[in-house]
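Exercise 7. Given the encoded structure of a 579-residue chain, write a plausible sequence.
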C-alpha cells in the first residue's frame, strides 16, 4: 500500500481552511466544545474563533467532563467565590444535565443542596439532575412551579409522582408562562384533601402576562360566565371582582409581557378596567429587557412615573439588573418629583456604579450632603461592589466613614479589595463572623491575616460556626475547624441543639455537630424537629416530608462515614414519630 507523502497531508489540511467551511462544521458543536477544545488546537483556530460567543464558557450548557474537571476539580477552584456563587455553580451545572460534571461541581462547591438547585434543574427539564439532587437530600423547593412556568409537562408529572407536594402557585406559574393546557392539568391534579381557594385576581394577572390578547379575552369571557352577581342572578365580569389595588397589577403584568401584542393587551385592559393609571405600571415595565421603549410608550399614554417606585422595584428583584446611566438620567428628567427628591436615583446610581453621572449631579448641587443619606449611598455602593464610588464619596463628597456594617456588605460579596479599603479608611475591625456570612475562602483568609480572628470569645466563635451551618456552607465550616478550631475539650450539646430552633436546617445541624465533635441527644433533637414550626406549617403529608428528612440523615451518614453519636437514634425516633 502506498503511503501518502507529506505534500498530500498538507494539501488535505488546507481543505479545512476553505473560507466558511470550518465555521460551518463547528456550528454543529456545543458552544462549550469550541471554547474548551477547538480554540486550543492552534493559534489559527484561536484567532478564527475569537468572538465572545466562542470564548465564553457557559456552565448551563453541556461541557466535556475532562475539560470541566480540569477547571472545577482542581484545588482552590472556588476559593474566590462566595457561598451564593458556589451554589450558582451547582445550579447552572444541574441545568446542563451532565451528571459527571454535576458531581464535580457539587463536591467543589462544598455546600448543602438547596431548593434553588432543584428549581433550576426542573425548569430546564433535566430529570436526571433532579433525581441526583434528590438522592443527596435536596428539598423540592418551588420545583413544580419552576417546571410549570417552563411548560415542562414531563417534569411536572415526575415531580408529583416522586412526592413533590401539589401547590396552587404552580397553576399560576403555568399561566405566567402561557401554558394553559398545563395549567388546566395541574388544576385537575389537585389532591382531594386540599381545598385552597383559587384567587381569580392572581390567575388573571398570570394570564395577562403569559398569554396573547385573544386568549386573555376568551378566558376572561369564560371565567365571567362562572361568576354570578349576588342576588341578581346576572353574569359578573371577573374584572369587576378585582379590588382597585389589583387593577394596576393586571395592567403591569401585560406591560411586562413577552408576547408581541403586549401593547394591545394594555389598551384592552384600559377599556375593561375603570381605574386611575398607577405609577407602579411604568415602574414594573422598566424591568423588561426593552424597558425604556415600554416606559416611553406608557408615559405617552399618561402613566405617571415615580423614581422611588422604580428604585424600590429594582432593589426588590431577586437578580436586579444594572440600570444604564442614560436610562437613569432619563428617569430623573421624567419624574416631576426628582427635582426635590433625588435620593432614590442617587442610591441606584451608587449601586450600579455610575460615577460620571454622580459627579455631574454633584457638580450641579443635586447631591444632599446629609450624613445619614451619604451613609445609605455608601452601603448601596458597597452592596454593588463599587469601590470607585465609595472612594469618591469619601474623598470628594465628605462621607465620614466609621460604619462597621460597611465591612459586612463588602465581605458578603467576597470583595477583598473593598474589604481592605473599608478597614484602612474607616477604622472598623475585620470580622470573621461577617466574612463567614459571605462564605468566600479568600476573604476569610484575608480577614484572618488582618487579625479578624483575634480576641474572639468562644461564644462569638461558636456563632460563626452556627452561621456557616445555617447557610449550609460546609466549606466554611471546614475552614473554621482548620484555622479557628474551638478550644480543646469544648463541647456544648445544648448550645448546638438549640441552634436548630434558630432556623438552622437539620443537615446543617448534623454537619455542625460532626465538625465540632459534639454528641447529640438523638431523641431530644427528633422531638424538637417534630414539634418545630416547620412541621406545623407543612401543607404536604407530614409523613412524606419527615421520611425524606430520615433519608437525608441516612445519606449524610453514608457520604461522610460519620459515627456521630445520636444520629442513628434521631433517625429511628423520627421514623417512629411519623409512622
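Solution.
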Amino acid at each position: 500500500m502506498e503511503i501518502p507523502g507529506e505534500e498530500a497531508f498538507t494539501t488535505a489540511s488546507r481543505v479545512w481552511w476553505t473560507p466558511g467551511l470550518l465555521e460551518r462544521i463547528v456550528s454543529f458543536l456545543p458552544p462549550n466544545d469550541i471554547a474548551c477544545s477547538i480554540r486550543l488546537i492552534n493559534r489559527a483556530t484561536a484567532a478564527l474563533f475569537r468572538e465572545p460567543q466562542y470564548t465564553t464558557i457557559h456552565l448551563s450548557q453541556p461541557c466535556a467532563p475532562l475539560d470541566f474537571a480540569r477547571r472545577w476539580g482542581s484545588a482552590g477552584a472556588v476559593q474566590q467565590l462566595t457561598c451564593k456563587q458556589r451554589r450558582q455553580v451547582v445550579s447552572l451545572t444541574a441545568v446542563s444535565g451532565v451528571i459527571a460534571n454535576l458531581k464535580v461541581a457539587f463536591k467543589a462547591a462544598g455546600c448543602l443542596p438547596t431548593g434553588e438547585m432543584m428549581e433550576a434543574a426542573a425548569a430546564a427539564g433535566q430529570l436526571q439532575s433532579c433525581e441526583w439532587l434528590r438522592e443527596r437530600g435536596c428539598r423540592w423547593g418551588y420545583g413544580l412551579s419552576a417546571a410549570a412556568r417552563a411548560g415542562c409537562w414531563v417534569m411536572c408529572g415526575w415531580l408529583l409522582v416522586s412526592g413533590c407536594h401539589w401547590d396552587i402557585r404552580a397553576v399560576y406559574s403555568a399561566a405566567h408562562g402561557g401554558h394553559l393546557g398545563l395549567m388546566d392539568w395541574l388544576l385537575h391534579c389537585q389532591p382531594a384533601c386540599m381545598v385552597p381557594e383559587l384567587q381569580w385576581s392572581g390567575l388573571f394577572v398570570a394570564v395577562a402576562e403569559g398569554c396573547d390578547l385573544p386568549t386573555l379575552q376568551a378566558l376572561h369571557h369564560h371565567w365571567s360566565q362562572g361568576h354570578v352577581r349576588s342576588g341578581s342572578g346576572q353574569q359578573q365580569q371577573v374584572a369587576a371582582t378585582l379590588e382597585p389595588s389589583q387593577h394596576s397589577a393586571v395592567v403591569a403584568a401585560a406591560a411586562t409581557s413577552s408576547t408581541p401584542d403586549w401593547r394591545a393587551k394594555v389598551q384592552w385592559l384600559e377599556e375593561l378596567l375603570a381605574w386611575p393609571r398607577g405609577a407602579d405600571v411604568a415602574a414594573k415595565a422598566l424591568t423588561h429587557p426593552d424597558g425604556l421603549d415600554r416606559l416611553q410608550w406608557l408615559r405617552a399614554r399618561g402613566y405617571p412615573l415615580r423614581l422611588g417606585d422604580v428604585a424600590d422595584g429594582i432593589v426588590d428583584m431577586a437578580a436586579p439588573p444594572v440600570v444604564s446611566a442614560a436610562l437613569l438620567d432619563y428617569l430623573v428628567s421624567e419624574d416631576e418629583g426628582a427635582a426635590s427628591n433625588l435620593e432614590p436615583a442617587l442610591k441606584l446610581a451608587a449601586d450600579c456604579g455610575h460615577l460620571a453621572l454622580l459627579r455631574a449631579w454633584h457638580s450641579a448641587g443635586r447631591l444632599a450632603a446629609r450624613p445619614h443619606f451619604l451613609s445609605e449611598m455608601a452601603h448601596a455602593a458597597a452592596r454593588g461592589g463599587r469601590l470607585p464610588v465609595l472612594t469618591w464619596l469619601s474623598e470628594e463628597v465628605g462621607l465620614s466613614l466609621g460604619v462597621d456594617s460597611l465591612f459586612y456588605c463588602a465581605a458578603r460579596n467576597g470583595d477583598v479589595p473593598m474589604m481592605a479599603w473599608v478597614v484602612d479608611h474607616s477604622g472598623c475591625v475585620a470580622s470573621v463572623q461577617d466574612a463567614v456570612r459571605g462564605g468566600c475562602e479568600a476573604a476569610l483568609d484575608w480577614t484572618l491575616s488582618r487579625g479578624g480572628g483575634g480576641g474572639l470569645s468562644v461564644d462569638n466563635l461558636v456563632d460563626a460556626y452556627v452561621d456557616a451551618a445555617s447557610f449550609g456552607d460546609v466549606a466554611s465550616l471546614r475552614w473554621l475547624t482548620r484555622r479557628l478550631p474551638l478550644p480543646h475539650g469544648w463541647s456544648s450539646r445544648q448550645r448546638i441543639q438549640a441552634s436548630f430552633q434558630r432556623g438552622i436546617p437539620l443537615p446543617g445541624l448534623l454537619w455542625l455537630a460532626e465538625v465540632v465533635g459534639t454528641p447529640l441527644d438523638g431523641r431530644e433533637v427528633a422531638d424538637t424537629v417534630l414539634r418545630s414550626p416547620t412541621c406545623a406549617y407543612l401543607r404536604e403529608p407530614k409523613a412524606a416530608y419527615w421520611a425524606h428528612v430520615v433519608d437525608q440523615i441516612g445519606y449524610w451518614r453514608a457520604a461522610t462515614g460519620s459515627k456521630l453519636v445520636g444520629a442513628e437514634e434521631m433517625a429511628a425516633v423520627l421514623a417512629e414519630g411519623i409512622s
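Remark. The CA atoms of residues 171 and 183 lie 5 Å apart. Students should compare their own answers with the one above.
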